[in-house]
């Protein structure tokens, strides 16, 4: 199909929406390493995981074999509120950059939570409801996940308890209020309401918190409260599975017009959006059917892939969760209070860590002032105010498009625009006022985190 027939926005029909999630692990030769029980160092069993997570989600977490998993009809009906999400050809950005590259982005911000997180929130809430639970607990960084989960729980009449990273709780009060509007209780973390919260505050007085802290609190409350389970917005295999709806839709929209991306870019915190976006394309690469360049983009202030170590580590600061093999900065690493709250996680999804370790994708870290410069440039020409997290992907997409300008190559670039930044105006204000700083941890800063990684035979070589 000729290029001039490619519309600015490509929408699928509702009838073309994915009916199945795609499980990239089924096509991986080297499967992600299993979660380990920190007490026995043996792989976590279904029974052990079911104390913390919903039963059906545990099955999905451990499923390395089935490539396609049916999306229940009730979840597909909920998806129709805001999906299919558009695949946008960034004609205006291309013109502004004067690049021969063709730039596309998959926009996931067209819902009240403002991000892609709702794709997994409704699935996890659905399985909790099906199990007959009263409610769920969770953590949230920037607040997109907590907002999404509160919406999903409200829809299904489940109770929702959210532990929000303290610096985000203070920086993003309006996202907190959206959660409360949907009926969730929101507690700044670390808090005095849990044993692990008290312990963290005693060891780190005045801490601004981290996702690792908030996870510890949410897990403690879930395991000590009858009828509750813990749910997580990123990192886990099950979350990447649900988020595959992003990539499956993106690929279907591209296939409609005979478009094949050369480079696929996603921001990377715990890995949910990146894993979801790349999944069907990565599947083709793993099966030898096509080749793509995959780029994970993370903040220089929390560089788990680019400067972390590949080892078994705790998923949380309080060390109450299972051990996951991942690229990590150490569960005790508490990053600076930078403004991409959703990317302030010390580790990376085990699935993505394995793919990165095996050389199927690359990673780059970027400093936050350059990220906000890219965000502003994008907003001025494409008309969407992007979330700080998403703007990491925008930064590298612009970099790659400018490389094409130098070489004359007409590469096709696809990136994930995970959400909108309308609740992130404190960050934009700091950028505009010139008071935003770039924090890059020193090797000494990172060593403190690495020193806390569990030592046992075969770990931390």
UniProtKB/TrEMBL annotation:
What Pfam families has UniProt attached to this entry?
PALP (PF00291)
Q: Name one GO molecular function term.
A: L-serine hydro-lyase (adding indole, L-tryptophan-forming) activity
Reactions the enzyme catalyzes: (1S,2R)-1-C-(indol-3-yl)glycerol 3-phosphate + L-serine = D-glyceraldehyde 3-phosphate + L-tryptophan + H2O
Signal keyword on record: no
Q: Pathway, per Swiss-Prot/TrEMBL?
A: Amino-acid biosynthesis; L-tryptophan biosynthesis; L-tryptophan from chorismate: step 5/5
Q: Can you give the residue ranges of the Tryptophan synthase beta chain-like PALP domain?
A: 82-419
Q: Which InterPro entries match?
A: Trp_synth_b-like, Trp_synth_beta/beta-like, TrpB-like_PALP, TrpB-like_PALP_sf
- Read off the SUPFAM superfamilies from this record: Tryptophan synthase beta subunit-like PLP-dependent enzymes (SSF53686)
Q: What is its EC number?
A: 4.2.1.20
Q: Which UniProt keywords apply?
A: Amino-acid biosynthesis, Aromatic amino acid biosynthesis, Lyase, Pyridoxal phosphate, Tryptophan biosynthesis
Q: Which cofactor does it need?
A: pyridoxal 5'-phosphate
Q: How does it assemble?
A: Tetramer of two alpha and two beta chains.
- Tell me its family: Belongs to the TrpB family.
Q: What is the protein name stated in its UniProt record? A: tryptophan synthase
User: Species name for this entry?
Assistant: Faecalicatena contorta
Q: What is the lineage of its organism?
A: Bacteria, Bacillati, Bacillota, Clostridia, Lachnospirales
């Amino acid at each position: 199909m000729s290029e001039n027939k490619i519309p600015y926005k490509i929408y699928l029909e509702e009838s073309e929406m994915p009916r199945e999630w795609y499980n990239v692990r089924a096509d991986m030769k080297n499967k992600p390493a299993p979660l380990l029980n920190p007490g026995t160092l043996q792989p976590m069993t279904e029974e052990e995981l079911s104390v913390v997570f919903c039963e059906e989600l545990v099955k999905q977490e451990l499923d390395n074999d089935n490539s396609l998993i049916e999306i229940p009809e009730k979840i597909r009906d909920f998806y129709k509120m805001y999906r299919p999400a558009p695949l946008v050809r960034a004609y205006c950005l291309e013109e502004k950059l004067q690049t021969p590259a063709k730039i596309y982005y998959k926009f996931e911000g067209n819902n009240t939570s403002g991000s892609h997180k709702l794709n997994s929130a409704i699935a996890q809430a659905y399985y909790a409801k099906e199990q007959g639970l009263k409610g769920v607990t969770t953590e949230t960084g920037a607040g997109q996940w907590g907002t999404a989960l509160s919406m999903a729980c409200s829809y299904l009449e489940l109770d929702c308890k959210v532990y929000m990273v303290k610096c985000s709780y203070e920086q993003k009060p309006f996202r907190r209020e959206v959660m409360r509007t949907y009926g969730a209780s929101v507690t700044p973390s670390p808090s005095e309401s849990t044993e692990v919260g008290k312990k963290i505050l005693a060891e780190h007085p005045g801490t601004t918190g981290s996702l690792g802290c908030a996870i510890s609190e949410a897990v403690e409350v879930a395991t000590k409260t009858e009828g509750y389970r813990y749910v997580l917005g990123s990192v886990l295999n099950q979350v990447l599975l649900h988020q595959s709806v992003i990539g499956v839709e993106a690929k279907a929209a591209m296939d409609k017009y005979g478009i094949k991306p050369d480079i696929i870019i996603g921001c990377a915190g715990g890995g949910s959006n990146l894993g979801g976006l790349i999944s069907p394309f990565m599947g083709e690469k793993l099966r030898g059917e096509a080749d793509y360049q995959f780029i994970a983009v993370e903040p220089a202030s929390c560089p788990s892939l680019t400067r972390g170590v590949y080892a078994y580590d705790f998923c949380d600061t309080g060390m109450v969760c299972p051990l996951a093999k991942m690229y990590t900065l150490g569960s005790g690493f508490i990053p600076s209070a930078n403004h991409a709250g959703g990317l302030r996680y010390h580790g990376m999804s085990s699935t993505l860590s394995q793919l990165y370790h095996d050389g199927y994708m690359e990673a780059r870290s970027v400093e936050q002032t350059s990220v906000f410069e890219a965000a502003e440039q994008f907003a001025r020409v494409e008309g969407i105010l992007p979330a700080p997290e998403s703007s990491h992907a925008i930064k590298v997409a612009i970099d790659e498009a400018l490389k094409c300008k130098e070489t004359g190559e007409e590469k096709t670039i696809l990136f994930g625009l995970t959400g909108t930044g309308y609740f992130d105006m404190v960050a934009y204000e700091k950028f505009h006022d010139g008071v935003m700083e770039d924090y890059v941890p020193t090797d000494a800063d990172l060593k403190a985190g690495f020193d806390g990684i569990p030592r046992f035979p075969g770990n931390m070589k």
